[in-house]
TrEMBL record:
The gene is mraW. It comes from Latilactobacillus graminis. PANTHER family: S-ADENOSYL-L-METHIONINE-DEPENDENT METHYLTRANSFERASES SUPERFAMILY PROTEIN, TRNA (MNM(5)S(2)U34)-METHYLTRANSFERASE, CHLOROPLASTIC. This is 16S rRNA (Cytosine(1402)-N(4))-methyltransferase. The keyword Methyltransferase applies. It is an enzyme of class 2 (transferase). Its EC number is 2.1.1.199.
Amino acid sequence: MIIEHPTEIAHFLLDRAIRPGDVVIDATVGYGDDTLFLAEHVADFGHVYGFEIQKKAIDSCADRLTKANQANQVTLLNQGHERIITALPPDLKVQAAIFSLGALAPNSFEHITLPNTTISAYHQILSRLNRGGLIVFVINPQFNETQEEIDYLLADLSRLDANNYQVSHFKDVNTNHGQVLAIEKI
Ligand SMILES: C[S@@+](CC[C@H](N)C(=O)[O-])C[C@H]1O[C@@H](n2cnc3c(N)ncnc32)[C@H](O)[C@@H]1O
C-alpha cells in the first residue's frame, strides 16, 4: 500500500511546510515518532518544542532522540499542550505543529486527548503561526480518540476565517484507517 497510516499523510504535508532552521511543535509527543521526524526536519539550527502529560512517554522519547543524535534541537516539556503559549519564548513564531489524537498506545484508554484542551492548544498555536505555516491533526482509530473530540474539532475548524486559513480534511472513502485535518495559514 502507498498510504498505510494517516501519519504518512501528515508527514508528507509537514515535509512541504518545514525548512531547516524552523521552530515547530509536537503537541502530543507520546513515544516520539513525530518528534524525531520534526527534529530531523528542522536540523540542528531549528527547534522542536514537545508537549506530553505522561512522564514515561517523555523519558522514552528523550532516550530515542539521544540515540538518534537529535536531542540538541528538542525541548521536551512534561506538561499539557493547553499551556503551550506560556511555555514558548515571547514573540517566537512557529512554522508547524502536529497533534496526534487519542492515547499513548492502542490498548490504552487513559490520558487520551480531550476536545477542550486540543481546541484551546491549537488556537494558541494559531496566534504564533507564520503565514504559510501548517498545523496537522492525525486521527488514527487505533489510538482510541473519541468521536466527541473529532466532532468538536471539526465544528471549531469549520468556523475559522477562510480569508486567513485553509482547512483541509483527508480521509478514506471506503475504509477507516484514519484521517488527517490540516490548517494552513494563508
Ligand atoms: C496518539 S498519542 C501520540 C503519539 C506520538 N505522536 C508518537 O509519535 O508516538 C497521544 C498522546 O497525547 C498525550 N496527551 C493527552 N493529552 C495531552 C495534553 N493535554 N497535552 C499533551 N499531551 C497529551 C497522551 O499522553 C498520548 O501520549
